[in-house]
Design brief:
The complex is a heterodimer of chains A (about 70) and B (about 625). With about 70 residues, chain A is mainly α. Chain A contains four helices and no strands. Chain B contains 26 helices and 18 strands. In chain B, the strands form three sheets. In chain B, strands 10, 11, 12, 13, 14, 15, 16, 17 and 18 form a nine-stranded mixed beta sheet that branches. A five-stranded parallel beta sheet of chain B has the order 2-1-3-4-5, sandwiched between helices. In chain B, strands 8-7-6-9 form a four-stranded parallel beta sheet. The termini of chain B are far apart.
């Protein structure tokens, strides 16, 4: 599943897949701004057919958290 | 979308390549991620732009350009965009240094919504008395009026203002309609007021968000979660729909409205095959399901004709069967005479359509072809790629929605000229017939009995002049596209002269079919634009007009010379030698392939143009 998430994250932020690590976060990546955060959420919801709660969306501040939160639903 | 396609898009160096991929995917049912990917790469490879688009809003519309850019690429339109910071519409229009004014857009989309404009109406409606509700209504209207007049004053953009959507539930519930001043009524009054305010304003248009919502539904267009998280009133689906509506205005603004619709007959205009089922067997008319389906379709095509779109027939039938069907079945909305031209035979359709396009004197890329048969569609697509060929699915009940959803037939205004245009094209086809009969051009022109009236333009001509500037591609020496505010300026400014010409003849009145815009610069007259509608080409009108100009400025006037410019485009080949033929000499060639001509007063000679009577109102 990480492969799928990696591809999606790289596409949303327009970065190489190699750059997508579990540590990648809102603090370390400039492109991870509030607008791109929404794009990421929308893309993940579409792709994995999930409906995140507001708390989930707040919590997803790095890739590791993203993987964890998706895991809750899958 | 296939992974390979995505890779091609990511690696593309050429904007056109990405646009052609978008065009090759019929249903455009992209995910939001795919829209984003295409948008980013369109933007990366884009050099220059065809339209600058700006958004002013009090809710989040930052993603709108993503969707709009992708949709525009379907029609090869390069879009650059600017989204003003949230809720800063006044500041953005007031400060010279604002992002918006610096960006200098051609089109501004203003989308304000009630939660922000009037929190009381939004959530405390039942606490308000009728006077307060009315006061709030006036506040909202005043805010919009202020923004609009600032935009008119500080920009020369077109301004597209969205109207207001009724909330999905009223605060009083089903009792709303019994209130002294109901919430429903409040919104209706607001939207009505918007129409009244801007009806006469040539640069302001209403985007009907309310109609869009009633068509698609607010549950599909918005996501409550996204609203609370990011003040996004539209979700991805909603933005896509909104972009589609905005595209209609862009097509009209850029003069890309299609001129002609080619129609098939059997199973497109009626159910069944007239050659096999007989005239009594074809299905169209009131009172039975299949008949009503095609009746509704025909009624819609008739409205297109009334908008000024030419209807033409391209069908494989016995010509007599087709004509008889229209004459005998008299309960059809369309009549035989609604079609400006037809080719009903067994020749390949691309050939028939090419001939008709030539006869109508329109560009290939200004036509749409509609046929239920996928083979015919494929053939036309293949042979005449410039023509738009919408997909029709098997079920005729879907045809009407398909045709209505097309953005190709939009015009900013419908003028007197539009409503009679189809008639004029038909007269042209008749005139053409006369040309074949007589065989001699001079005798033909004499028989036409052309009366050419040249008049100084005034403000009542603005809409028609704007149409000529934005839609004429062939007989257009510089192809400069001016907007309505430029035109108003030309009319008022004494350094400019704008003359319009109209033509009537023994077959009818063609209305205003051309214009000349000149700039007077001391003792030199500069021809800025010289435009003649294709309906009036090939009968010496341009020469007659040029004679009038030569006479006015050089022979009888005090000017030393006329300077004119020819800027070549893909389409203005008919005027390649125009100035040469009119006795001008080449002054110089420019690097961009444009040519500058001059005509000095001692060399000015009036050319022979037989059969044209000239009336001057200048």
């Amino acid at each position: 599943m990480f492969e799928e998430i990696r591809e999606l994250v790289s596409e949303v932020f327009g970065i190489d897949e190699d750059e997508v690590t579990l540590e990648l976060s809102q603090q370390t990546l400039d492109k991870w701004d509030s607008l791109n955060h929404l794009k990421l959420i929308t893309a993940v919801e579409e792709e994995f057919n999930i409906n995140f709660t507001m708390d989930d969306i707040e919590e997803i501040s790095n890739v590791a958290k993203l993987v964890e939160v998706i895991g809750k639903y899958k | 979308m296939e992974k390979e396609t995505k890779l091609i898009i990511k690696n593309a160096e050429d904007w056109d390549l990405i646009a052609s991929i978008v065009q090759s995917i019929p249903d455009k049912n992209f995910s939001s991620r795919e829209y984003d990917l295409i948008y980013r790469n369109l933007d990366r490879t884009r050099k220059g732009e065809d339209l600058k688009f700006a958004v002013l809003s009090n809710h989040t519309l930052d993603l709108l350009p993503t969707y709009l850019s992708v949709l525009c690429s379907q029609d090869n339109l390069k879009l650059s965009s600017y989204v003003a910071p949230f809720n800063q519409y006044f500041q953005e229009l007031l400060l010279d240094t604002s992002g918006l004014l610096q960006f200098n857009p051609e089109l501004i989309y203003l989308d304000l919504s009630i939660p922000n404009l009037s929190p009381y109406i939004h959530q405390k409606f039942l606490e308000l008395d009728s006077d307060t509700k009315e006061a709030e209504l006036n506040n909202v209207i005043e805010a919009i009026e202020n923004v609009a007049s600032l935009a008119l004053k500080n920009t020369d953009s077109y301004i597209l203002i969205s109207n207001f959507v009724q909330p999905p539930y009223t605060q009083a519930g089903i009792a709303d309609y019994k209130l002294d001043y109901s919430e429903t009524e409040w919104y209706l009054k607001l939207n009505l007021k918007l129409i009244e305010l801007f009806r006469k304003e040539n640069r302001i248009f209403i985007l009907d968000k309310s109609r869009l919502t009633s068509k698609v539904g607010s549950e599909s267009l918005s996501s409550t979660k996204m609203y609370y998280l990011a003040k996004m009133e539209f979700n991805e689906k909603g933005l896509q729909y909104l972009a589609q509506e905005i595209l209609r205005y862009i097509i009209a603004i850029k003069g890309l409205t299609k001129k002609c619709l080619f129609l098939d007959l059997d199973n497109t205009l009626w159910g069944g095959v007239v050659g096999e089922d007989g005239i009594d067997g074809i299905k169209v008319g009131k009172g039975y399901p299949e008949g009503e389906v095609f009746y509704a379709l025909q009624a819609y095509f008739k409205t297109l004709k009334q908008r000024g779109i030419i209807l033409a027939l391209a069908s494989k039938n016995n010509p007599q069967d087709a004509e008889d069907a229209f004459k005998i079945k008299d309960d059809m909305p369309l009549t035989w005479s609604d079609f400006a031209i037809n080719r009903i035979n067994w020749q390949p359709k691309p050939q028939n359509i090419s001939e008709m396009i030539q006869s109508l004197n329109i560009g290939k890329d200004s036509a749409v072809f509609l046929d239920d048969n996928p083979v015919e569609r494929g053939l036309v697509n293949e042979m005449l790629p410039e023509i738009k060929v919408p997909e029709l699915h098997n079920d005729p009940t879907t045809y009407l929605e398909t045709v209505q959803s097309l953005h190709y037939f939009e015009k900013l205004f419908i003028t007197q000229d539009d409503t009679i245009k189809a008639e004029q094209y038909k007269q042209n086809a008749k005139r053409d017939g006369l040309r074949y009969e007589i065989g001699d051009m001079i005798a033909f022109l004499a028989k036409l009995g052309t009366v050419l009236t040249i008049s100084k333009a005034n403000t009542s001509h603005i809409k028609r002049i704007h149409q000529l500037f934005s839609k004429t591609n062939q007989f257009n020496v510089t192809t400069k596209r001016y907007n309505t505010s430029d035109i108003e300026l030309f009319i008022k400014d004494s350094d400019y002269e704008i003359n319009v010409f109209s033509v009537s003849d023994n077959f009818g009145d063609l209305g205003i079919i051309g214009l000349v815009l000149t700039r007077l610069d001391k003792d030199v007259v500069v021809v800025d634009s010289f435009i003649l509608s294709c309906r009036a080409m090939g009968r010496g009108i341009e020469t007659a007009v040029m004679n009038v100009l030569k006479n006015k400025y050089l022979v009888a006037g005090a000017f030393e010379k006329i300077i004119a410019m020819y800027i070549p485009t893909k389409k203005n080949i008919p005027v390649l030698d125009f100035f040469n033929e009119q006795g001008f000499t080449v002054l110089n060639h420019h690097e961009d392939n444009s040519t500058c001509y001059e005509l000095v007063n001692v060399n000015a000679e009036l050319l022979d143009c037989p059969g044209i009577e000239i009336k001057l109102e200048i």
